[in-house]
UniProtKB/TrEMBL annotation:
Domain of life: Bacteria
Lineage of origin: Bacteria, Bacillati, Actinomycetota, Actinomycetes, Micrococcales
Chain spans, region Disordered: 193-213
Name this polypeptide is given: DUF4126 domain-containing protein
Native organism: Mobilicoccus pelagius NBRC 104925
Pfam families per UniProt: DUF4126
């Protein structure tokens, strides 16, 4: 059960930022005994993997905070984030299997991959839909703020997933609340824009009811 919370938290974090949960798992596995990766996933904690992931994380952090550029970054993330979610869910599930000998996960390793892909994909889709709203409603000024919030949430979820998996539900709730907040902001923005359009159309009609030339 705890392995499921761990995988869910890490794959959800991957939906926000693909490289944060990867690095958390890699560093924890390399420097502690909290997470012991089985041989087939041991490469995740190798120095080459850590260095490459660190460089990619730096690029992600910078690009995701620039309006318009973040759309291109999200387009690339459509493939990277779900794939990372699947990998990390499978790796941590395999680590639990390796230690506790879970028969189900040992015989069905594809389950972890699928759950990770779906979880990360859902979170990524929410991020992709709401980000244009943020860019539009704030003229790009809110983009780095929301991006920093997402990065912080990705870090928090990843750490909770590894060290306190029973609290992952709290992190996921915060993620849902953030999505709801952004969705409400989008609806309010559309309502204001519709109101302005209606007022503009009314102003374009002259006193005898005919459209102004």
């Amino acid at each position: 059960m705890l392995a499921a919370f761990t995988g869910a938290g890490l794959s959800a974090a991957a939906g926000l930022n693909a490289y944060v949960p990867f690095l958390v798992v890699a560093l924890v596995a390399r420097f502690t005994d909290v997470l012991v990766l089985p041989p087939e996933f041991a490469w995740i904690s190798s120095w080459p993997a850590i260095v490459v992931a660190s460089v990619l994380l730096l690029s992600e952090v910078v690009l995701d905070k620039v309006a318009v550029v973040d759309h291109v970054n999200d387009a690339v993330g459509t493939f990277v984030r779900p794939a990372t979610g699947g990998l990390i869910f499978a790796a941590t599930s395999a680590a639990s299997t390796y230690e506790a000998q879970s028969e189900f996960m040992a015989r069905n390793p594809w389950v972890g991959v699928l759950l990770g892909i779906v979880t990360a994909g859902i979170v990524h889709a929410g991020k992709t839909v709401t980000r244009p709203v943020v860019n539009t409603t704030t003229a790009g000024l809110g983009t780095p703020v929301v991006s920093a919030m997402e990065d912080g949430l990705a870090v928090g979820l990843s750490l909770l997933a590894v060290f306190v998996p029973v609290l992952v539900a709290v992190g996921l709730l915060l993620l849902v609340l953030l999505g709801v907040l952004l969705r409400r902001r989008a609806r309010a923005h559309r309502a204001r824009r519709t109101g302005r359009n209606l007022r503009g159309a009314s102003a374009a009609v002259d006193t005898d009811g005919r459209p102004a030339s």
